[in-house]
């Protein structure tokens, strides 16, 4: 991996297999987030998720550490669905790490990092009931692109808004 994002208050590094149990514990401590999504999904599902036609080489998975402990996870797909668009597949901070602007700091660091990788747009999906994340994205310049309706076959149990931000 060429580089990692620099996020004040965290150390980001490439996710390794040994990180999975600690991240799963963070997921398990936050059933409310998974209820917003309509289902609980394991860390491995995020780790392995790839859009059609993409390979592991297009995927950038980071663990965020604080004081040597895993406190968050970030998943990007490069050049999806088009060149220079970076799809933020997942961002998650532990309940302990959230608040006080930590999520906003992460996003701003990601804007900087993606630009440095040659990306010009960050795109993501957020489930409609996730008011907190939607507020964060709206106040960081993300704009509505599309809506994806519920589709259990695609494991989408909530209406999902696709947002994008030009960098
Ligand atoms: C989404 C997430 C990364 C945001 O990080 P965070 O550290 O909680 O957010 P911040 O402290 O930077 O706060 C961002 C904004 O959300 C607001 N906010 C916090 N709690 C809120 C709530 N319950 N309802 C509405 N807004 C809320 C904050 O007030 C702040 O807005 P402000 O600056 O206008 O006051 C983090 O909460 C998280 O990992 N959540 C679980 C996973 C998730 O939802 N990921 C996003 C999936 S698309």
Task: Describe the protein in words.
With 167 residues, this protein is an alpha+beta fold. It has a single domain (11-166), classed as Gcn5-related N-acetyltransferase (GNAT) (Aminopeptidase), CATH 3.40.630.30. It is built from five helices and seven strands. The model has no long low-confidence stretch (mean pLDDT 97). The structure holds coenzyme A (COA).
What would you say about this model in short?
By secondary structure, this protein is α+β, with helices and mostly antiparallel strands. Helix content is 27%, strand content 30%. The protein has 5 helices and 7 strands, in the order E-H-H-H-E-E-E-H-E-H-E-E.
Helix percentage range: 25-40%
Rg calculated over all Cα atoms: 15 Å
Strand content: 25-35%
Q: Which ions and ligands are bound to the chains?
A: coenzyme A
Proper CATH architecture: 3-Layer(aba) Sandwich
Unreliable spans: none
The largest sheet is: 7 strands, mixed
- One letter per element, helices H and strands E, the order comes to EHHHEEEHEHEE
In CATH, the homologous superfamily goes by the name Gcn5-related N-acetyltransferase (GNAT)
Strand order of the largest sheet: 1-2-3-4-5-7-6
Q: What's the CATH C level?
A: Alpha Beta
Number of domains: 1
- Bulk shape: globular
What's the end-to-end separation, in Å? 21 Å
Which structural class do you get from the secondary structure elements? alpha+beta
Number of helices: 5
